[in-house]
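Hello forum,

I keep getting stuck at the same step: I have a sequence, I want structure tokens, and every attempt I make locally crashes halfway through. Rather than fight my setup again tonight, could one of you with a working pipeline run this one for me? It's a single chain of 616 residues.
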Amino acid sequence: MIRSILIANRGEIACRIIRTARRMGIRTVAVYSDADANALHVRSADAAVHIGPSAARESYLQGERIIAAAKASGAEAIHPGYGFLSENAEFAQAVIDAGLIWVGPKPSSITAMGLKDAAKERMIAAGVPVTPGYLGADQSGERLQREADAIGYPVLIKAVAGGGGKGMRRVDAAADFADALGSCQREAAASFGDDRVLIEKYILSPRHIEVQVFGDSHGNVVHLFERDCSLQRRHQKVIEEAPAPGMDAATRASVCAAAVAAARAVDYVGAGTIEFIADASEGLKPDRIWFMEMNTRLQVEHPVTEEITGQDLVEWQLRVASGEPLPKRQDQLSINGWAMEARLYAEDPARGFLPSTGTLDVFHLEAATSGRIDTGVTQGAEISPFYDPMIAKVIAHGDTRDEARGRLAAMLEDSAVWPVRTNAGFLVKALAHPDFAGGTVDTGLIAREGEALMPPERPSDRALTEAAMAMAPRSLLSGFRLNAPDKRSAHFLLDGAPCEVLLHGPGAEEPAPSMLVAEGGQVWRLEPWRVDAGASGHAGDGVILSPMPGRVIAVDVKAGDAVAKGQKLLTLEAMKMEHGLVAPFDGVVAELLVSAGAQVEVEALLAKVVPSGSEG
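Reply #2:
Ran it on my machine without issues. Output:
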């Protein structure tokens, strides 16, 4: 058995691996960047090694430094977690060449499944059904357009080396294809260093079904059943569950057998996930489920599989990497109940899901009965703009789907995070949506129902009144007329905006200067009214400010250009995501203060648009 491992990752997955390793008596070594010097995974490990500046490309993506850290710290093995270098075949080979144990699949398997076109050709040869599309080497715009026209719209353009929703565009009409292709190729080149794409038929009622597979070095391959990850926003998973709703025994047997065949086709060792797309227009059927891709690593959503099977997949990884056979045979694995996982992101749904950064002054998540919290942060931690905005995974298990769903909703409703914003309220609304509750969700639900899933802009009247009464001094309620109702309204500030609240009762003996109001996973700050409340800012004046710290990766206009309302001016990259900033009205770019490559702080002035005719 491996005696010590270095974890080439950060955040919740690093903490997750440390927990299992400690239980197994394995020594752990963390790596960290400048931004993560005081992070939970660093404090939790037995040892920690600094590997570079805050930006991931200068630290967590520096394979040579990570291997050097493993050798210097006496680690025998490297566990990559997910993301970063976890699916980098060159890094895996370098780890092996350095005489270390790679806790993952063979580099040849990563390579075989890393390019989507080659992987699909291999799957076709192995008898695994694949989605209709074009996988050809001719990447000219004319050829790709012809192929898309022949497949029939809508189609999906996907980066050959893509993943995580990057380099992916849906195209609904031939006239839109060229622009979408160019955008997809640019994003693919920036994200993966490879601008090649493939074309697939876009399924109009798609479900995202994936199967957890596991292989060992003794020739054994098993599956641990399926997960449903259909609730997605911009191709990013939001809520995952296992098993998949509506999956009958025959369909499960078919899709799981296809997943095992796919793993065997690349001589797979370790944890992997075979992802399928299902046409659910007539329910889940064996002949309407097609291979999409393989993720040659542990998945973010692996806890739901652990919850329904009772297996620790990280322990399986460590045992397989140590040369042991799989801990269980296929006939020893079964499904117990239902599990759901919600990804809690540091983002603000009310501002277009922009990432939210800052210090976690309040970070309250509680695992209720049959609940689990996987996180890499604690109260007081700093959420920086350098990494993925996911701050926790909230997981619930129940005997039935409704039980698991209800428990997950209750855990999210009881959460409180401040002043960093989260998507908890959005997740609560999504869990309650009739389509999700009924198990008929498809990948387009959030795009269709986005407004209906937005959390409320203010707390309920009852919650506001309770908070205001705890703040309001008795003097505020003095002077009532004899026999008059003991009620009156008063003005407060709710997240800085004027707010009138109905008060009743005697008021507080020791009023608070401010109070947090937590309800349904949302948090607001209630403060006493200030005379200068509502002072004018720059709303509507055409000033374009940076909504967060980040890097300008593209500027689409120049000073003096005429622009239309909604036209993209520039693109900001932060927390591994791109955010387009647009013109607030028709006008002219009067000032442009940044160029591509510039690092900017939150609320930095980037540009200014003025109405046409007023630029002089």
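The first helix runs from residue 11 to 23. If your local run keeps crashing, start a new thread with the error log.
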